[in-house]
Structure formats: structure tokens, C-alpha cells
Amino acid sequence: MLAIHNLSTQCLNQVSFDVQAGECVCIHGKSGSGKTLLLRAIADLDQNTGEIHLNGQSRAHFTPVDWRKQVTYLPAESHWWQDEVGSHFTSDSIDYSALALPEDIHQWQVSRLSTGEKQRLSLLRALDHQPKVLLMDETTANLDDENALRVEQHIKNKLEQGLTVIWVSHNQAQRQRMADTSWQIDQGKLIRES
To answer: Cα separation of 57 and 41, whole Å?
Structure first.
């Protein structure tokens, strides 16, 4: 599904690994080790070198916009550019209740949202574009345990449907629940743990 070979950024040196369809890879490491830079490089948001292939096709054959639709980066802190929640979605059939959000939340003003609501909505917004690969950067960091578990279950459902996930998480218990493969970034290297 996603093949990464000799990917290098300002913090990482020749990172290589593959992720299959329906697989969740979890990554952790100390603050500043390059976790976010790795995700942003995979999404082609920051300068990097190396080869990345999606279903056998080189990233170089995609326009940047098309690549990011297929390989979507979900930052730790979401950004909102319209006043109303619903303006950020392309589909009218979003199941907000899957993440314990009220069905009428699409009519709410963004300014009314809590940090946790924004975080859950940003996940639904990323999935609304139906990416093949989702790059999750501490997506549950600001959620209580109950809502974090809801997000995990929602992602498990998407994995069963063939979504590929690379998830940066500091939460060891979460990594144990979610990861098919777990990696640590240490001194610019990606080290496989399981």
C-alpha cells in the first residue's frame, strides 16, 4: 500500500518502512525527535528526499493536491477557516454520533466548539475526503479516556474497511491497543519495536 524508502528530513536520516492496507503503524519518541516532521514529509508538506509509493505509484506522479487527498495529514491542532462547522465538510452524511457529537453540530459556529470537539471533528473532516492513508499526529492528546477510546474504535472500523494509518502517539496503552507494528524514533533513526 504505502512504501517509504530512504526518506530523509532535517531530523531523520534514510527512514524506510512499508505499511499495508488496513494496517496501523504507531510511532513514538522524545519531543523534538522528528515524529511530526516524518508525518509531514510523508504528506509532502515539508522538504524531504527519498521515495514514497502508494499502491506502486511514485509520489512524483501525483500533483501535491492529489497526493494529500490520498495521503492525508491530521495535525495535533486543527485549523478552521469558515465560521460554521458544516462548511468544512463535503459530505452531508457524516455520522457525528460515532464520536459522541450532536447531530446538529454541523450548524454550530466553530467559535462554540471545545478543543476536544474540534479534535474529533477534524478527524471526521479528514476521513470525509476518503483518503487511502491517514497520518495521525497525537489525535487524541486533548481527549478524555472515553472519547479517546471512541476515536480508537472509529479508526478500527476504518482499518477493517482498508484504511492505512500511521499514528504518532505518546500513549503506550493506546499503541498497544492500536498498533500492528510499533516504531520508535531515536537520534534520527526509526527503530522497529514490534
So the answer is: 17
